[in-house]
Each structure stands twice: as C-alpha cells, then as structure tokens.
Amino acid sequence: MPHTIAIDCMGGDHGPSVTVPAALSFLRDHPQARVIFVGQEALIRPLLASADALSGRYRIQHASEVVAMDESPAMALKSKKDSSMRVAANLVKAGDASACVSAGNTGALMAISRFVLKMLPGIDRPAICSVLPTVSGHVYMLDLGANVDCEAEHLLQFGIMGAMLAAALEHRERPRVGLLNIGSEDIKGNKVVKDAAELLQNSGLNFIGNVEGDGVYKGHADVVVCDGFVGNVALKISEGIAQMLGQFLKQEFGRTLLTRLAALAALKVLRNFKGRVDPRAYNGASLLGLKGICVKSHGSADIFAFGQAIDRAYEAASNNVPERIAVKLAELQREQEQQGGEPHTTEEKV
Amino acid sequence: MPHTIAIDCMGGDHGPSVTVPAALSFLRDHPQARVIFVGQEALIRPLLASADALSGRYRIQHASEVVAMDESPAMALKSKKDSSMRVAANLVKAGDASACVSAGNTGALMAISRFVLKMLPGIDRPAICSVLPTVSGHVYMLDLGANVDCEAEHLLQFGIMGAMLAAALEHRERPRVGLLNIGSEDIKGNKVVKDAAELLQNSGLNFIGNVEGDGVYKGHADVVVCDGFVGNVALKISEGIAQMLGQFLKQEFGRTLLTRLAALAALKVLRNFKGRVDPRAYNGASLLGLKGICVKSHGSADIFAFGQAIDRAYEAASNNVPERIAVKLAELQREQEQQGGEPHTTEEKV
C-alpha cells in the first residue's frame, strides 16, 4: 500500500539541507511512497530543483513557524500553531499522511504529537522506543526518557507497545520481552520492577523475565522494558563508552609513524567495524502509544541518518503499528474485566 | 604506616590459586605491608612454599568454612560463623587488619561486613563504589547495586562517601561531584533526583550539578552519584557494549587472510588499546559507609585483577577513608542541627 510521510523539514541542527535530500533519497528507494515536505517553502523549493523525476510523488505544505531546539514544549505547543512540527502532525491527524518524522526538539514533539494525535485508550504519555545493535541482531528498548516516574502498569504498557512494534517491524510472531533489572532472579530489583514482572507474566506476551544491563547487548531479549530514567541513562552511557573506546582506538593508531602505517593496513577492517556500529544506522526513535505514527530523529542527524528515521516511519505505517498496539491493549483490558473467567492460555496470543 | 590486609582466600571463582599469588605479589610491591591469609590452611600453605623471603610479613588465619557464590546472604551470615569472609571481617573489627578483601558472594559480603564492622552513624547500608575509566582519567561511581530504592538523603550520603574516597585516593582537595540525570538542566529527572540536587547543593561538597550518561565517560565529574538500580544497570550496560564492540572488532580482523595480516600489523596497537580499557585494571569496589575498609573483587578476577583490589584496600587504609567519611558526616549533621545559625560558606569545606 502506498504511504505518505510528512517530513518536518525545519527540525534538527541542519534543517532542510539534511531533511529534504534524505526524503528525496527515500522516494527513490521506495517507488510506492509519497512525501509531504512541511516547512518554509522558500527554503525547501530550491532543494527540489533536481528532483523533477520524483515531482509526482511529493508536495510542499508551507508552515510559517519553526520550533527552536531549546524552546519549552509548552511554549511550542501554545504559541506556534503554524510550526512545521505541528503542521506535520496535523497532516497525520487529518489522514493526509500515514506518519510524520521530525529531528526537532524532543519535548516539543512529544507535547505536540500527544495534543494533536491523542493517546491510545489507556496510555498516558508516549514512550520513546529505539532499536539498538546486539551481538546477534538488534533489540527494541523503551522507554528512553519520556517517562521518568513509572509505575508497574506503565512498564506493562511499554512491554505491549514494544512487542507490537517489534512484531510488526521484525515480522516476528512473539518477540521475547525482557524487563531490565539488576539480576536475573525474581527477587532482584525495586518494588516497581517486581510488580511489573508479575503484570508482564500475566500479559500474554512472550515475557522471558529479567534482563541485566549486559544482557541487552548480548541479545537476551528482542524487547527490553525499563522506566524512562533508567533507559535514558543506559542509552547515553552506551553512547559515552562507545565514543570513548573509539577515541582510544584512534589515539592508539595515531601514536607513531609505525602505528599510523598499521592503521593504513587495517583501514578496511576499521571501516567495516565502524560501519557495523554506526549509530546513524540506528537513528529514528518511535513515539509509541499515540493514535498515529511519529518518529523522532536525532537532532544532529545527517542525510543518511535522517533517511533511516524516514524508513522506520514508513515501515511502521506499512505494518499498522498503532492499530496493533490498540488491539492488544483492548484485548488485555477485556481480560482484566473478565477476571476469574476462562483460564489464561498465553500460547495463543502474540 | 605499615598496614595489614586480611585476604579472604577462599572467595571468588578460583579461590586460593588466585588470591594467594596476588597477595604475595602485593607484598613484594609494598615492602611495608603485611597480609593475613584467611581460609583453609591446608589449601593455602602449599601455595606459600616459594615465598620464604616474605614469611615475616604474612600469617595464615585458619577458617574452616567457605561462603558459596550462590549462597543466600542471610544463611551465610547466620550459619557460617567460621567462614573465611566472616573471619576476615572479624580481623578488621578487632584491629588486627586495616582492611579486608574478598572476591566472594557480594550479598553475603555486604551482610557480613555490615553485621561485623557496623555502619557509620547516619548510614543505613553500604554503598558499592567503583572506579571507571574516562577520556581524561577516571571517575568514582556509586551506588552500583547495594541500594535499589533510594531517597534523596541516600544520594546525598553517596555524594559524601564518594567524595571522601576520591579525595583520599586521588589526593584531590575538592573532587567534582555530579548527580546522574537525564538532562543537564535542573528541571530534569524524577523527584528523588531533584530533591537530591538540592541537598547536594547545600552539602559543602564541590557539587557540579547533573551529569548525563555520556558525561560519565567524558569525565564531566570525579564522582558520579546515582541510586543502586540505575548504577548497576549503567555498569553492566557498559560491560555489555564494551564486550560487543570488542567482539565485533575481533570478528572484522578475523574475517579473511588479508584482514588477519592487518591484525598482525596492528597487533601492538590493538594490545595497547586493550590494555587501556582492561576492566581488570579497575577491579575492586569499595563498600563504603562501614566503620572499616572492605573491598569487593569481581568473582572471576585473575591474579592481576585481584591484586588491583588488594591495592585499593591498601590505599584506602593508608588514607583513612572511613575516618574521613565519618568526619564529614558528623560535620553535616552538626550543620543541620544548627539550622538558622552561621551562613553557609561552602568554599572552606571539602
């Protein structure tokens, strides 16, 4: 099915100079797809000069305002009704686009998407879900910073949303859902995590129990659930140590003439290694729990990275992620209402 | 001043075959130091055969029992009164040793050290503090898993204990103390963290505010404070990603004959790199808040790694870490009692 993606062209550190070429490249790769460029027409139009061949598959939607990267979410929501971010969300709400993508201010995007698209029944706030590499593939991790004070019920919702996203995008019937904890035994962790384990156990999801920090990258689960505080720290700690190791490796190879020659000999290997752990390939976090698809790109994304975020939005649209989440949430709610009814047969459920 | 270290020879995955040679090597490196080998004499004695030159500086203290790595802390505390771990702690309590080191069961070591050595006034449980590498040096991070449900007051205590440890071991008058958070702005984070920031601000410590996950490895602070759940996840996530990156690098260098030749050319560089991020060099976590020094080694430590843990214990003993923490805690308590008294002049305090 052909899907249209609304691109907030003005967001991110680089604005249209990154977002527009990334979207054109996306159109070339997906002959069925369409794009709406949202933002200041005068800045977008010149970047489309060489894209005549694609012109039947895109249009520009002018939006006069831009949400600044450091603007307060409340201000962005209240006073900038014609911002590119807001107009992109409106297009999804109106059904003119199947998804929106923005590299803008995370807080503002959350506030705007929540206000415009609304939350699915039973979900309070969007959760941020990203894909991370593992030794054996990759893992979906959430929440990565939207919800810093979580109760067990929230962690259950994250489990459902993450599992539905992973099931849809990985075409995997019952992805393994793990709960981030500080030990693999049931008795470990704080009260919220222990209560969440019980809820997840009875959710019908393929819940595999606790996953420790190192288990995330060892691929112990397909979906890892945690509160937004822990998730954000885990994500940024990972970035920090990966950068540090990269820097040390570079320093060691740059030390003397001899080591620089060794670097030359190892150039291809080092490039392959770098490509394999390139964080740009993992760009594009899904804001889950909305009645529509919204993908957040890293603000500093380049053309390749922003393209990855568009791809994720397109994949989510093609696989009806919000509908899947809504169905699973409704199913769980019905079960809770029927407490004491039929015995629980987890095997039949995704 | 000559210090005596009590070594729990039986703890860890390898027992005396690692702990005894590590302690002998420590004695060779520290001509003033003494060691008490605690554990089953029949297993320890044969390993000392070639150490006659050092025999004036060590003795064996027989302990008939061993705490198993998977034993419940409560059982270890209650039923094994002659365990090597317990006897080592008793030696510190009695003043026969200045510190004890164990590679045994963490939970049991915490329970035993807390029971035998007792906590400093105003501290409820030991906090686990480790040193981690940063781009510019290293950082002390705590708590790494002992306290999973923390209140703001606990985070303040961690700040004090970590700062006193860093001040003592780094000979740094006012180490920079940061609070692990999900943004650098004051408004970020959950309630506990926000309240802790206020307490740390008024603590007289050199509190630099929030530090994000990536800031830990960027060396933004000398001491990073967090609750034990977050800290444990952060530590293990770091281990996980570092292992994954190492594995990817190895795979890339092992791919073809050509890449293996490149690895040969780069051998020295890769070795230097590996040495620089060798987790063994950072082995030895301090259990802070006790009225005595207790260092926990990783269970899988080899001779080199266990030696690092002994070194840390010796350094802590040489620099009176528990006394420093007690003094600072008492100072803060006096100030709290004198609320409304003299104005706060943070500059004069460590």
CATH topology of the largest domain in chain A: Isopropylmalate Dehydrogenase
Give the terminus-to-terminus CA distance of chain A. 24 Å
> What oligomeric arrangement do these chains adopt?
homodimer
Let me know the number of strands of chain A: 11
Question: Strand fraction band of chain A?
Answer: 15-25%
For the record, the CATH architecture of the largest domain in chain A stands as 3-Layer(aba) Sandwich
> Largest interface, per-chain counts?
A-B, 56 and 56 residues
- How many domain modules of chain A? 2
Helix and strand run of chain A: EHEHEHHEHEEHEHEHEHHHEEHH
Rg of chain A, alpha carbons: 21 Å
Return the CATH class of the largest domain in chain A: Alpha Beta
Number of helices of chain A: 13
CATH homologous superfamily name of the largest domain in chain A? Isopropylmalate Dehydrogenase
Indicate the mean pLDDT of chain A: 91
Overall morphology of chain A: globular
Strand adjacency order, main sheet of chain A = 3-2-1-4-11-10-5-6-9-7-8
Give a quick set of tags describing it.
homodimer; 350 residues; alpha/beta; Isopropylmalate Dehydrogenase; 13 helices; globular; disordered C terminus
